[in-house]
Write a structure and sequence with these properties.
The protein has about 70 residues and is mostly helical. About 30% of the residues lie in helices and about 0% in strands. The protein has two helices and no strands.
Length: about 70
């Protein structure tokens, strides 16, 4: 996640993320750290209660000052 905000407003996002147990780290691990020829990954669309990640984006656009910047393909 990248937050583009003025320095004074950054603290409110840090507090929100920390409240949800999402902490800043210098040792970020992503799914790419675990993929290899011996351990390949696969892509699936996760759905819960009829909702997907795309519904989350739409909900955030409606309920906060967040906006959808771009979607990147393979």
């Amino acid at each position: 996640m990248t937050i583009f905000e003025g320095k004074d407003d950054l603290l409110k996002y840090v507090k929100l993320l920390n409240k949800n147990k999402i902490y800043q780290t210098d040792n970020l691990l992503t799914a790419w750290n675990f993929f290899s020829n011996d351990n390949p990954g696969e892509i699936i669309l996760y759905e819960k209660d009829g909702k997907t990640i795309y519904d989350v984006v739409e909900r955030l656009k409606q309920t906060s000052n967040l906006y959808f910047a771009e979607q990147r393909g393979d």
